[in-house]
C-alpha cells in the first residue's frame, strides 16, 4: 500500500542561505512579522500591525549553529523557513531539492566578505538542483554606515548572468525592504 507522502501536504519550504553573519536570522525574524501571501493577488496586502511588530522586534541574534527551522505564517498558509549557515556551505546543495524558493543573503556592509559572498551566490544560483527555482538575493544591512554601492555590488555579482535571481535591498534593523522580500517569496511560491 502506498504511503501518503509527507511532503505533499507539508508547507512549502524556503531555504535561507548566506555567509556567516550575513543577516539571515534577523531577516527571517522580519519575514515572520509580515503576514502576506495568498490573498496578495488582490493587490491589497494589509500592512498588519507593524507598530506592534516593531515593539517586539529584537536585534539580538545568536549565531545559528548549523540549521534553523522556523515557520512563517501567511494569510492563508504557512511556509517552512530553513536557515542554513555559512559554516555549512558545502552542504547547501543538499537542501536545494526540497526548497520551493531560496533566499540568499549578502551583507553589503562588509567589504571583506563581499567577494566570497558573490562566489557563493553564483555557485548556488547556477547549481543544477536550484535551476529554475526562484532565487531572491537580499542585499542586507543597508542601514549600516558604510555599504557597497549598487555599482560595486554589480561589479562583483554578475547580475546579468543570473537571470533567475531577483534582487532586493533590505535592512532588518529598520525593516526597509523586508516586506517586499516577504511579498516576493509568496509570489514566487504561488507562481509555481
Ligand atoms: N546594521 C545591521 N546589522 C544587522 C542587520 N541584520 C543583522 N545584523 C547584525 O549582523 C549580525 C549577524 O546577524 P544574523 O541575523 O545573526 O546573521 P546570520 O548569521 O546570517 O543569521 C548581528 O550582529 C546582527 O545584529 C541589519 O539589517 N543591519
Ligand atoms: Mg543565523
UniProtKB/TrEMBL annotation:
Keyword Protein biosynthesis included in the entry's annotation: no
Top-rank taxon, per record: Eukaryota
InterPro entries: P-loop_NTPase, Small_GTPase_ARF/SAR
Family matches, as SMART domains: ARF
Pfam families on file: Arf (PF00025)
Keyword Glycoprotein on entry: no
Residues bound to GTP: 18-25, 86
GO molecular function terms listed in the Swiss-Prot or TrEMBL record: GTP binding; GTPase activity; metal ion binding
Keywords: GTP-binding, Magnesium, Metal-binding, Nucleotide-binding
Protein residues bound to Mg(2+): 25, 64
PANTHER family: ADP-RIBOSYLATION FACTOR-LIKE PROTEIN 16
Official protein name in the record: Small ARF-like GTPase
Organism, scientific name: Chloropicon roscoffensis
Organism classification: Eukaryota, Viridiplantae, Chlorophyta, Chloropicophyceae, Chloropicales
Amino acid at each position: 500500500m502506498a504511503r501518503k507522502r509527507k511532503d505533499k501536504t507539508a508547507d512549502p519550504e524556503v531555504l535561507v542561505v548566506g555567509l556567516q553573519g550575513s543577516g539571515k536570522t534577523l531577516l527571517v525574524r522580519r519575514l515572520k512579522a509580515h503576514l502576506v501571501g495568498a490573498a496578495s493577488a488582490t493587490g491589497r496586502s494589509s500592512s498588519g500591525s507593524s507598530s506592534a511588530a516593531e515593539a517586539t522586534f529584537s536585534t539580538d541574534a545568536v549565531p545559528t549553529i548549523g540549521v534553523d527551522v522556523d515557520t512563517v505564517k501567511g494569510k492563508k498558509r504557512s511556509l517552512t523557513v530553513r536557515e542554513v549557515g555559512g559554516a555549512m556551505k558545502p552542504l547547501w546543495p543538499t537542501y536545494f531539492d526540497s526548497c520551493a524558493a531560496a533566499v540568499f543573503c549578502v551583507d553589503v556592509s562588509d567589504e571583506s566578505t563581499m567577494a566570497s559572498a558573490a562566489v557563493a551566490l553564483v555557485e548556488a544560483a547556477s547549481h543544477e538542483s536550484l535551476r529554475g527555482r526562484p532565487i531572491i538575493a537580499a542585499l542586507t544591512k543597508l542601514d549600516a554606515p558604510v555599504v557597497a554601492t549598487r555599482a560595486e555590488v554589480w561589479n562583483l555579482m554578475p547580475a546579468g548572468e543570473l537571470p533567475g535571481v531577483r534582487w532586493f535591498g533590505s535592512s532588518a534593523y529598520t525593516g526597509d525592504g523586508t516586506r517586499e522580500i516577504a511579498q516576493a517569496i509568496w509570489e514566487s511560491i504561488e507562481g509555481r
